[in-house]
Design a protein that fits this description.
The protein has 2 domains: about 15-135; about 145-300, no CATH class. It is globular, with a radius of gyration of 20 Å. It has helices at about 15-35, 100-115, 145-165, 205-210, 265-270, 275-290, and strands spanning about 55, 60, 65, 70-75, 80-85, 90-95, 170-175, 175-180, 185-195, 210-220, 230-235, 250-255, 260-265. A hairpin with a 4-residue loop joins strand 5 and strand 6 (about 90-95). It has 6 helices and 13 strands. By secondary structure, it is an alpha+beta fold. The mean pLDDT is about 95. The strands form 2 sheets. Strands 7, 8, 9, 10, 11, 12 and 13 form a 7-stranded antiparallel sheet that branches.
Length: about 300
């Protein structure tokens, strides 16, 4: 058995969105299907119960309560397979490989139905441009295992830094996880005050943005912004936040997106990636908290004595 100290892995591996785009779409739609199964759980404020959780091998739903028991779906991004286990002793799995979203749904629902789980969901993807119903998305999508593994390794590293950053926060938080609608890892901090989501807010936003919050996160890229990047925003957006000076060098306010941005490739050039990411999170938080009038005592100074 190898000594963990001798295992050398890059915690911040390269990830090119143009190369990853097809795999990204496949994972995004597949994870939405899995995530929608969690919508049958009791609602938690700001959707805090529905994210997928990062595990030591990939992602997991955690236990999804069903009847008088529970089942769990795991996305293993080391052995590249989907697994379902239940507390009534059933287990099954299938390989993650290049296929269509529709085929993925068929395979997933087959093993769930054999487990006796009701798989009825809304087949329309959420929070994506030009959505195609999952069962009608029959274009074969490339699944690149190395890039999928790199994506997960980045998520694991980000979660480590996020947990260190939020350890000083004294207000309400949510468990860090993957929001499968937008496929980003996010950490959300609240000051305990309600907020208006806006008169034109849809159902998702009405239940997500009904409290004052500061969020930071990371996504792998999109057609509109074709490179991975960290982000942070404050809701409601305070006046003058776009003029704030944040760190590290390269981080900036993006007027088109209305949030702070720090490109992942800039982090990879850093001599201290963890430190620079902490700096981005803290400076973006301070910019929002100060301008929005948050209690300065909500953010402590570090590890307790």
């Amino acid at each position: 058995m190898p000594d963990p100290g001798e295992i050398i892995r890059d915690p911040w591996p390269p990830l090119s969105y143009p190369d990853f785009a097809d795999t990204h779409h496949f994972l995004h739609m597949g994870l939405q299907v899995i995530g929608k199964l969690k919508l049958k759980e009791p609602f938690q404020p700001q959707w805090s119960g529905i994210p997928l959780w990062i595990s030591a091998r990939g992602l997991t739903t955690g236990p999804v309560h069903y009847a008088c028991g529970a089942y769990e779906i795991s996305v293993d991004l080391i052995s590249h397979e989907i697994a379902c286990v239940t507390n009534w002793g059933y287990s099954a799995r299938f390989d993650l490989a290049s296929m269509s979203v529709a085929e993925f749904v068929d395979r997933l629902f087959h093993i769930l139905q054999r487990a006796g789980v009701d798989v009825s969901i809304n087949f329309m993807p959420q929070e994506v441009a030009s959505p195609i119903p999952f069962d009608q998305d029959k274009t074969r999508r490339s699944y690149e295992p190395v890039m999928a593994n790199s994506w997960w390794q980045i998520l694991l590293s980000i979660q480590r830094v996020m947990e260190a950053f939020r350890g000083s926060f004294q207000g309400k938080t949510q468990r860090i996880g993957i929001m499968w609608g937008t496929l980003d890892i996010r950490d959300t901090l609240f000051n305990g005050k309600p907020a208006s989501p806006g008169a034109k807010a849809d159902y998702i936003r009405r239940n997500a943005m009904n409290a004052e919050l500061i969020e930071m996160g990371w996504w792998a890229g999109s057609a509109a912004y074709p490179k991975p990047a960290f982000y942070s925003f404050t809701h409601p957006q305070p006046k003058g936040i776009e003029d704030a000076k944040i760190s590290p060098p390269g981080s900036r306010w993006d007027h088109a997106m209305g949030e702070f941005i720090f490109d992942y490739d800039d982090l990879r050039k850093s001599k201290d990636p963890d430190g620079d990411l902490q700096s981005f999170f803290r400076s973006a938080f301070d910019a929002g908290a100060e301008r929005a009038g948050w209690d300065p005592n909500l953010m402590g100074t570090g590890r307790p004595d």
